[in-house]
Amino acid sequence: MRFLAAAAFALIVAVVVFSQKSQTAFYAPTRAAPAASPHAAKGVSYEDITAASGLGRFRHVAGDRFKPYIPETVGSGLALFDYDNDGWLDIYLVNALSDAARKGKGPAPAAALFRNNRDGSFTDVSHQAGVGNQRWGTGVCAGDFNNDGWPDLYVGNLGKSRLYRNNGDGTFSDVAERAGVAVDTWSTGCAFGDYDRDGRLDLYVAGYVEFDWKNPPPAGESSEAPAMGPGKGPGRAPDAGARLGAAFDPASPFCTFLGLRVACGPRGLKGAPDFLFRNHGDGTFRDVTRRAGVVDSHGYYGFSVAWVDIDDDGWPDLVVANDSKPNYVYRNRRDGTFEEIGLLSGLATNADGREQAYMGMAVGDYDRDGRSDFFFTTFSDDSFTLQRNNGSLDFTEATERAGLGSATLPFLGWGAEFVDYDNDGWLDILAVNGHVYPQIDRLRGTTSYQQRTLLFRNLGEGKFAEVSGSLGEGFTKPKSSRGAAVGDLFNDGDVDIVLNNLDGAPTALRNRGGSGAGHWITLKLVGDPALHTPRDAIGAVVFCYAGGFRQRGEVASGRGYMSQSDLRVHFGLGRAERVEKLEIRWPNGLRETVTPPVVDRVIKIEQGKRS
Amino acid sequence: MKWLESGVAQLLCLSVACFAQAPAGSPQSAVKEARERQARGDLEGVVRALTPWVETGRGHVEAQHLLGLAYYQQQNFAGAIRHLSTALKMEQEGSAAWKQTVETLAMAYYFSNRSQEALPLLEKAAALNPGDTYFPYALAMTYVYLRDLDAARRAFARLFDIRADDPQAFLLTSHFLAREKFGAEAGEMIREAQKKRPDLPDLDYRLGLIALTDGDLPEAVKRLEKELERNPIHPMAWHYLGDAYIRLGKTDLAIRGLQRAIWLNLRATESYILIANAYTGQGKYLEAEQALQRALELAPQSYEARFALARIYHKTNRPELATKEMAIANKLRAGSEARE
Asked: CA B269 → CA A342, B26, B71, B221, distances in Å?
């Protein structure tokens, strides 16, 4: 018996050593740490504070580690929002489920709410707050839907979604059913926005695919074991091809990738519907998807949602990033209805008119021309996409010219954000990455399952340069990242980053040196519901005039990859020691100009009060 | 104890009978019927005739074999693999049926992208069919998928009647590697060919294409220009040079290259579309529109041309034309998606 145990131990050691050796031998640009960049801002880096902050106690879990089914691959989002209104950002991390929990054979992993202790640490208050979700969670967005001054959360699930109403006392109540927004398919990204300018936040929820655990498509193969013979897949389901089509055929191209049998989908699976809910102002919403003309008529695979006024007519338009399909771009007709103009606008596809696997969506004015541009993360072997807004509902793909083509080619990206990491007044680009197929490492190719995080510094004149190699281990260490959110966690004037990693601990990256590299101003806007502006001012656009330049910022719900970043608006000011003026375009259409007395501060601006 | 076993067995028989009643007739008659249907091309009929026997476990080897063939002919490769791999275990090695099973199962695995399983069967099928080109091609491609580059080179050399050590064999293999997007390996092969024979045509062109695929635009420009120094009547080299320049934002240089590609090949639809993109980048919408109209004369079903034309109508504020043209483009896109 002892001999057997020793032999087994030796075998385990041999396997570990062998796998480590093969891991070392495996070179892919998505894993290998890049050299420090001459383009990086001097003295600015990111410190990984995951363990020290207490966030490391959270573990994201999503089914089987070999990822035989598509829900196990997409990960979850997170939200940076100030749930207790103490002026400090708190962190909500969405979780999925373990195999055991999904089958009812074990406790369900919970989502976690971490309260900011204002000293660099966070305390898990999920239990008291009642936001554990304990369903297969994917996306999250924040917004004060009832205008009571307390930010609420919508959580998209594979299964019934939740609307967590903030009770203002540190607790939340799930009111999704009563509010009429309990979507029961697979909802992913979401965003609050006041599309009809009645001062009440409406809600858009994207749907990914129709997926039934009781009747799933065939499983992908283990990333370690040799290919399975017919009928040997874990949890092989009875043939139900009639309902879900080709994806049930393991020989289908939708279930293979470069010769590997992988999780089927999303192509070949039926898309889940998207929903637009109009806020009645009495705590309930009404499904107006059809009436408003934003039906996901093609059954596309929606991931991320942004309300953004792309034509600057003062009415929020809607963009839905779709995986493997063209994006939807809905122009707000200002009468409660929308017109889909994705392909015509050029924003639905790349410049060649070809759809990509759009995952995350960042919105920001990277070229400081006053218009909102877009950046999308996509699949590996396809570059991420930068779309410049030309005005008049027209976009031009600027990926290659910006220097983002070959640099992003091997990466499979998720979270995407525009962020001015060095406060120089130019928006940089954050992209967080990780492949969907663990099996991909068997190919020893140019991509890998775990991937490092990318940051591209804006060099001005429409050019970007990768500076990840200069930012510390938080960027160079490969991870399976999915959700990403940015915001000033410590109110010290520079933008921090939090990532929700698949099947693991999150990553919290504290910006070190950003506030020293340039002046800054952060704005907390408060709208007046009596003037038909949502209280949290979601949808407000701010133009900041400083140092001879005009920058654009927005109070935005959702965006990124199924995540919520800081609802405050941050501007890096570079060397400018004062802001000449702030032009605010409130969601109700009214404009206001404010001159802030100081910079390097967080400033609260209440509509009409010129504070 | 025996009474218990027989009781359980009887119970099992009963329950099996409840759920899967034995089909009428015999397996032999079902096989006979299947053969007749197969001869008539009635593949659905073959599946209908044999499936009940195979499901009850009473179907013999011939039923498995025929069912597997029918599924293969229907391009249901999973079904083919299921039944042919069962048949293979039962058939006598070297028999005509076994040979057919080996060949068909090899191709079913091949078409299912299951290269590891396809490889030994394809090697057998190729050996069983000397002089045939079908299996050796699939075998060579399987080596490519498995990144066994030496074996792939030898296999392609045999297919093209050249010596495996000839530089042309390296070039050939690089072509197939590049086609499957194994750019790094394809580049290695070309460089090997170049070492052996630096004057071999197309080497820089191919390296340029690999660089273009990898997004290394300066390298692509360098290689393509080098190729064009030697061979200025290479329309595709001019075309891809134009492509690289567009992606670099150098539209003047792109237009120059693409114009040359068009002069050398007046039916170069793709070059017309690309030059239209370059003109669009310069805001020369009239020129872009003319180029796209020419592309559509050559290829009315070109999604890219329709899409680009609709975008120009949109940019030049002709909404009705834009909507109409994009609807056509979208239909073409949906059509090609359905075909995929």
From this structure: 26, 60, 39, 22
CATH architecture of B284-340: Alpha Horseshoe (1.25)
Question: Could you read off the pLDDT of B109-151 as tens digits, one per residue?
Answer: 998 778 899 999 999 999 999 888 899 999 999 999 888 999 9
Give the distance, in angstroms, between the CA of residue B242 and the centroid of all CA atoms in the same chain: 27
Which among A351, A355, A344 has a CA at the least distance from the CA of A394?
Answer: A344
Domain ranges of chain B: 30-112, 115-197, 201-265, 284-340
The ipTM value here is 0.87
> Which residues have a Cβ under 8 Å from the Cβ of B87 and sit 6 or more positions away?
B61, B64, B65, B68, B97, B101
B26's CB contacts (< 8 A; 6+ apart) are: none
User: In whole angstroms, what is the distance from residue B338 CA to residue B340 CA?
Assistant: 5
Hey, is the C-beta of A391 within 8 angstroms of any chain B C-beta? no
Structure tokens belonging to residue A496: 């921090």
Reported as a single tens digit per residue, the pLDDT across A263-305 is 899 998 999 999 999 999 999 999 999 999 999 999 999 999 9
CATH annotation of B201-265: 1.25.40.10
Contact A344 B217 (CB under 8 A): no
The domain B115-197 belongs to what CATH superfamily?
Answer: Tetratricopeptide repeat domain (1.25.40.10)
Q: What number does CATH give the domain B30-112?
A: 1.25.40.10
End-to-end CA distance of chain B: 60
pLDDT, tens only, A192-219 = 999 999 999 999 999 999 999 988 887 7
Which of chain A's residues have a Cβ under 8 Å away from the Cβ of B311?
Answer: 344, 346, 353
Contact residues, chain A, for B113 at CB < 8 Å: 253, 256, 258-261
Spatial CA neighbour of B71 closest among B33, B30, B112, B99: B112
Measure the CA–CA gap between A199 and B71, rounded to whole angstroms: 60
Same fold, B115-197 and B201-265: yes
Which chain B positions have a beta carbon within 8 Å of A259's beta carbon? 113-115, 145
Distance CA(A436)–CA(A440), nearest Å, equals 8
pTM: 0.85
Q: DSSP readout, B62-81?
A: HHHHHHHHHHHHTT-HHHHH
Tell me the backbone φ, ψ of residue A92, rounded to 5 degrees: -115, 120
In angstroms and rounded to an integer, the radius of gyration of the C-alpha atoms of chain B is: 29
Cα–Cα distances (Å) from A45 to A38, A90, A103, B233, in that order, read: 14, 22, 43, 52
What are the φ and ψ backbone dihedral angles of B300, each rounded to 5 degrees? -60, -20
How far are the Cα atoms of A367, A389, A524, A571, B40 from residue A425, in angstroms, in the given order? 10, 19, 18, 7, 74
Q: Does B107 touch chain A (CB under 8 A)?
A: no
Identify which of B49, B108, B53, B106 has the alpha carbon closest to the alpha carbon of residue B75: B108
Residue B74 touches partner A, C-beta closer than 8 Å: no
Contacts of A400 (CB under 8 A, 6+ apart): A383, B215, B217, B247, B248, B249
Are the C-beta atoms of A448 and A441 separated by less than 8 Å?
A: yes
Is A261 in Cβ contact with B114 (below 8 Å)?
A: yes
Sheet holding A162-166, edge to edge: A136-143, A152-158, A162-166, A172-174
Report CA B37 to chain centroid distance, whole Å: 31
Whether the Cβ atoms of residue A443 and residue A428 lie closer than 8 Å to each other? no
